[in-house]
């Protein structure tokens, strides 16, 4: 297994090696403690596996007894042979019975573990800060939940019982060999250290490439998911070739590391194969000499040959299991990374927001080293409307996400209804805030089910009222099954604007006192814009509204507009005041008006051609 020599010379690599070593050890510990939680069934499965293994060599021992009888007593009757044959047959039959029981038990346990592990991961995901999902792609999480968890089934269902059975069989075989004759036993095991050395060499040479291979395979997974999910964009932008090449590159990277591992593996493995089967060259001449001089019986010699030659096979099996174990340790590492990711801290004495006011106090924030927001202040009374505007990359979406606690602020505090959001229980926070983001997500379910995400027990009347307020009812009724229409993955047949209005209806149903809306830039045709504006008006009248605005015409009525530039507040005020006082806002407004006129001209041009 992958714990051993660190083959790198530089300090950096030594440290990296040590880190990997301790991660491997931790992951192995997790694997074993997972087995220990079901120790009753796991131990019985291991014992059954061991018995099955012992029964596999028992017929050879019986055969040697028979040979003894034949040699010592030449006049043996054929009927005397039958008990030996029957015993050997029974051993073989029971070998498979025990192996079968071991497999059934270990698989029952394995599937139980699989079930609980998948549930544990699924329960963990909602407890993670929302920012976690910005960092990890769905492809990476999918790989952990499907493939890495599957490795645990292989560990409990196959590897562990086989590993225990084969290790004990190896020891038992060596003991029997020494019991038969110590000189022949030494001859049988003499080449094995060479085999072990070869294996240790493979492991140490492959340590780095193995880790790189697993990272490359994770990348391949992500690329594959993106290749499939992004197919409409890829085709629309005729990026089929470049996207396919990206996918091919990730596959090639994977096979590159596979090739390296094979190269590292080829020579030591060949050496091992030769060594594992070379003991016959020692046993046969030495055994013949010992027999000629009367030091061993013919039956002992035959038995040494039969089980001694099997030693290579047992070790080969152990080595194969060792390499499976490496994969399982690697899978467990990824599962643990997810399971032990830092959750939003539990609040000891949770605070409750008293109203729908929002205060952003001297907030600074950095994703990594560079500050994205610096000393930002906002004060919003309940029921008021705040717009965040500014050039691309100014930090508008980041500020909106901080209000939802995607991440915690670096300095300062964000208060909802007077309570620091770090002191508010995560569920309570979500009860007070609704949000509609640019990357709209709809479940592959009916329109009604998607709306009910906002309020699971909403009546049909409530659904329709929310849909009417968000300007969705008419297009929903025009769908083939109305509210029972299955929208399909990513919203299927709905337009971008329609999907956004569905999300607004969902937020309306949730009826949280504060709404954060990261306005989408993509769905800007005038009809949609007017409809979205009306949908927003429905939200505004009794809610505190924070809108990250790209279409400035939708926020001219905001109580306060905060202009962000390079992470700092460059100006603030109403639309009219900012037009008079802020050059940056004026420029943004002029750019917006120009783009609207351009779209209008484009449309007129289109109409003329029609
Ligand atoms: N998850 C992230 N990790 C690291 N950097 C990020 C992350 N999200 C955003 N950034 C960076 O933070 C900066 C501010 O991004 P943000 O999305 O908040 O800007 P924005 O004003 O909303 O831009 P836009 O109008 O284009 O949506 C950008 O430089 C962006 O590259």
TrEMBL record:
Keyword list, A-Z: ATP-binding, Cell membrane, Membrane, Nucleotide-binding, Transmembrane, Transmembrane helix, Transport
Family matches, as Gene3D superfamilies: ABC transporter type 1, transmembrane domain, P-loop containing nucleotide triphosphate hydrolases
Residue ranges of every copy of the ABC transporter domain listed in the record: 358-591
Gene Ontology annotations for the cellular component aspect, listed alphabetically: plasma membrane
Identification of the protein by name: ABC transporter ATP-binding protein
InterPro entries in the cross-refs: AAA+_ATPase, ABC1_TM_dom, ABC1_TM_sf, ABC_transporter-like_ATP-bd, ABC_transporter-like_CS, P-loop_NTPase, Type_1_exporter
Membrane spanning stretches: 42-67, 87-114, 160-179, 185-203, 271-292, 298-325
Organism: Desulfobulbus oralis
Top-level taxonomic group: Bacteria
Principal localisation: membrane
């Amino acid at each position: 297994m992958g714990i051993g020599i660190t083959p790198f010379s530089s300090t950096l690599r030594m440290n990296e090696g040590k880190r990997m070593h301790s991660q491997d050890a931790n992951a192995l510990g997790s694997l074993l403690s997972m087995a220990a939680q079901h120790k009753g069934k796991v131990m019985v499965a291991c014992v059954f596996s061991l018995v099955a293994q012992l029964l596999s060599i028992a017929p050879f021992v019986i055969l040697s007894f028979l040979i003894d009888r034949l040699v010592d007593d030449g006049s043996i009757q054929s009927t005397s042979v039958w008990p030996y044959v029957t015993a050997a047959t029974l051993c073989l039959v029971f070998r498979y019975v025990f192996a079968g029981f071991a497999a059934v038990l270990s698989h029952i346990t394995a599937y139980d573990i699989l079930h609980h592990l998948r549930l544990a991961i699924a329960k963990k995901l909602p407890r993670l800060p929302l920012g976690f999902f910005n960092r990890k792609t769905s492809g990476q999480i999918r790989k952990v939940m499907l493939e890495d968890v599957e490795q645990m089934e292989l560990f409990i269902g196959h590897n562990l019982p086989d590993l225990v059975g084969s290790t004990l069989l190896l020891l038992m075989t060596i003991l029997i060999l020494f019991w038969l004759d110590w000189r022949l036993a030494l001859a049988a095991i003499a080449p094995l250290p060479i085999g072990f050395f070869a294996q240790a060499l493979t492991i140490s040479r492959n340590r780095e490439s193995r880790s790189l291979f697993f990272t490359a395979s994770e990348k391949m997974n992500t690329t594959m998911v993106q290749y499939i999910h992004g197919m409409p964009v890829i085709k629309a932008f005729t990026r089929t070739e470049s996207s396919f090449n990206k996918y091919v590159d990730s596959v090639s990277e994977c096979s590159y590391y596979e090739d390296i591992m094979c190269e590292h593996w080829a020579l030591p493995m060949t050496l091992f194969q030769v060594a594992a089967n070379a003991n016959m060259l020692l046993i046969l001449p030495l055994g013949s000499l010992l027999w000629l001089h009367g030091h061993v019986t013919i039956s002992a010699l035959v038995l040494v040959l039969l089980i001694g030659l099997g030693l290579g096979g047992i070790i080969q099996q152990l080595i194969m299991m060792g390499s499976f174990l490496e994969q399982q340790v690697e899978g467990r590492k990824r599962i643990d990374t997810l399971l032990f990711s830092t959750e939003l801290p539990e609040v000891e004495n949770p605070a409750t927001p008293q109203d729908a006011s929002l205060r952003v106090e001297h907030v600074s924030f950095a994703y990594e080293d560079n500050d994205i927001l610096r000393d930002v202040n906002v004060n919003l009374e309940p029921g008021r409307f705040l717009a965040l505007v500014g050039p691309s990359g100014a930090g508008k979406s980041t500020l909106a996400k901080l209000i939802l606690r995607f991440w915690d602020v670096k300095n300062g505090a964000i208060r909802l209804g007077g309570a620091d959001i770090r002191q508010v229980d995560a569920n309570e926070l979500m009860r007070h805030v609704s949000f509609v983001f640019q990357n709209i997500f709809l479940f592959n379910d009916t329109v009604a089910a998607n709306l009910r995400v906002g309020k699971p027990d909403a009546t049909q009347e409530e659904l329709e009222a929310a849909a009417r307020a968000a300007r969705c009812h008419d297009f929903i009724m025009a769908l083939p099954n109305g509210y029972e229409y299955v929208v399909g993955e990513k919203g299927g047949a709905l337009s971008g604007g329609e999907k956004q209005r569905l999300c607004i209806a969902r937020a309306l149903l949730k009826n949280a006192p504060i709404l954060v809306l990261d306005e989408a830039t993509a769905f800007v045709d005038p009809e949609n814009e007017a409809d979205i504006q009306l949908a927003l008006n429905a939200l505004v009248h009794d809610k505190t509204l924070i809108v990250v605005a790209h279409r400035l015409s939708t926020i001219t009525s905001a109580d306060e507009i905060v202009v962000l530039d390079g992470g700092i507040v460059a100006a603030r005020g109403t639309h009219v005041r900012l037009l008079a006082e802020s050059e940056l806002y004026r420029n943004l407004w002029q750019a917006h008006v120009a783009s609207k006129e351009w779209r209008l001209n484009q449309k007129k041009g289109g109409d003329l051609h029609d």
